[in-house]
Specification:
Blueprint: H1 16-35, H2 43-54, H3 64-69, H4 73-78, H5 90-107, H6 117-122, H7 128-140, H8 147-163, H9 178-182, H10 184-194, E1 197-200, H11 202-210, E2 217-221, H12 227-241, E3 247-252, H13 265-275, H14 280-294, E4 298-302, H15 320-324, E5 329-333, H16 334-341, H17 353-356, E6 367-372, H18 385-393, E7 404-409
Parallel strand pairs: 1-7, 2-3, 2-5, 3-4, 5-6
Antiparallel strand pairs: 6-7
Helix pairs in contact: 1-2, 7-12, 7-14, 8-11, 8-12
EC number: 3.1.3.-
Keywords: Hydrolase, Manganese, Metal-binding
Catalytic activity: beta-D-fructose 1-phosphate + H2O = D-fructose + phosphate; beta-D-fructose 6-phosphate = dihydroxyacetone + D-glyceraldehyde 3-phosphate
């Protein structure tokens, strides 16, 4: 068996995990202390986590009491890594933190408390222009069109879902038609949007969807709430109305996770916040989503698997696989899902996506990763690209959020 590369580590100054443990995690815990002022009795427990990180103490296994409250923690203990905070696998330790935070609220009999809710909702108001423009455009575009036009639109909606609120919305904003999108100006904007997409399998994904019947389920394993969730809903509407699938399942986290990850309740939070815009196109968008949900053409689901600490390589061994194995396409959103797909290992950056997902490639699942790069691991790059970007943007280009990948593995071709 080929030796795997080591995981990204919090002890490696060349890893983004190093600055994460030194700066980002303490900042997140301090933010929790500020935001839990309505339950001051919980503050000492957050201070204990903060002290443990800052003093680089050894992490400890979850207790029997904690496992009784959350049986999924047994997985963490079964795969326990006996390390200190500043010298361990970044992915495991980061997942461990959010489970430890959740434990505080479970012990306090506050199982539905989302300590990150204020941060999640604060970002939506700044996205009002983008949201209203996209809702307006959705109401005017004919989405069920011929395949050549459908591909043009598919690229746009994939880009919106990929970049979230950092995307250039100029192509879909205002009173533009499909002909405008296909125009020379549209092509220029598309090239501008695509120059930082280092791996772009969009056309192959579209061909996979159109090579089969219009029926079938697309499963989206979500990342962030707020504008990104909105953009994922926009993509889902396009997939359904263009008849590229007959249903979209949205897979959420069960607990507050990595600050901004989507939970089931964040759908209603999104609808409530954007309804404050008092815009007829936004109201119509909300109405359409709720109609799709009522008709079972969209579904919002969750499973504890998405908050485990390990790679997704063993997905076929867990119950969630039964709900995914007949999927027409799985779309994994965001940086964390990419890290879990690839094991968060220090792969050579020219390693193929198929190799990096290891045993998952044997699960017969068509897998897409839409990922803005905010961590160390990147695979599938052509020769010389990494070296060029290091010269242009420095060693940490892969954690800057300025570059992205649209990677596709298809075992059914």
């Amino acid at each position: 068996m080929t030796m795997l590369p080591p995981p990204a580590s919090t002890s490696d100054p060349k890893s983004f995990g190093y600055s994460t443990v030194q700066e980002r995690w303490p900042k997140i815990i301090k933010g929790c202390i500020d935001d839990v002022s309505d339950h001051p009795e919980l503050i000492p427990q957050f201070e204990k986590i903060l002290q443990s990180i800052e003093q680089d103490l050894k992490i400890i296994k979850f207790t029997d009491e904690e496992i009784a409250l959350n049986p999924n923690l047994k997985f963490y203990n079964d795969n326990f890594v006996d390390v200190h905070w500043h010298n361990g696998p970044w992915l495991y330790l980061e997942c461990y933190i959010y489970q430890a935070i959740n434990n505080i609220f479970l012990k306090a009999n506050l199982p539905h408390y989302d300590i990150f809710n204020r941060l999640k909702q604060s970002t939506l108001q700044s996205s009002e222009v983008g949201i209203t423009e996209l809702c307006k455009k959705l109401s005017s575009l004919t989405l069920d069109t011929k395949d050549s036009d459908k591909l043009v639109l598919f690229k746009e909606f994939i880009d919106i879902s990929l970049w979230g609120n950092s995307t250039d919305l100029s192509l879909l904003a205002g009173d533009v038609s499909l002909e405008d999108i296909k125009s020379i100006q549209g092509e220029e904007i598309r090239k501008k949007n695509e120059k930082n997409i280092l791996v772009n399998d969009t056309k192959a994904i579209f061909e996979h969807l159109t090579a089969r019947s219009s029926s079938g389920i697309v499963d989206i394993i979500l990342d962030n709430s707020g504008f990104e969730l909105f953009s994922d809903l926009v993509l889902a509407i396009f997939l359904l109305e263009s008849k590229l699938c007959s249903k979209v399942n949205f897979h959420c986290k069960q607990i507050p996770w990595f600050v901004s990850d989507t939970m089931i309740k964040d759908f209603d939070e999104l609808f409530f916040e954007i309804s404050k815009f008092h815009n007829k196109h936004v109201d119509k968008f909300i109405e359409n989503i709720k109609a799709y949900l009522a008709a079972d053409k969209m579904a919002v689901v969750t499973d504890p698997y998405w908050t485990m600490s390990g790679p997704f390589w063993d997905l076929a061994k867990f119950p969630v696989y039964e709900t995914l194995k007949s999927s027409k396409l799985l779309i994994f959103k965001g940086d964390l899902n990419y890290r879990k797909l690839t094991g968060d290992l220090n792969w050579e950056r020219t390693t193929s996506f198929a190799e990096a997902i290891q045993d998952l490639k044997n699960a017969n699942l068509p897998i897409v990763s839409l990922r803005t790069c905010k961590a160390d691991v990147v695979v599938g790059l052509p020769e010389g690209v990494d070296e060029r970007l290091v010269k242009e943007a420095g060693d940490f280009w892969s954690a800057s959020g300025k570059y992205a990948v649209i990677s596709f593995f298809n075992p059914r071709q």
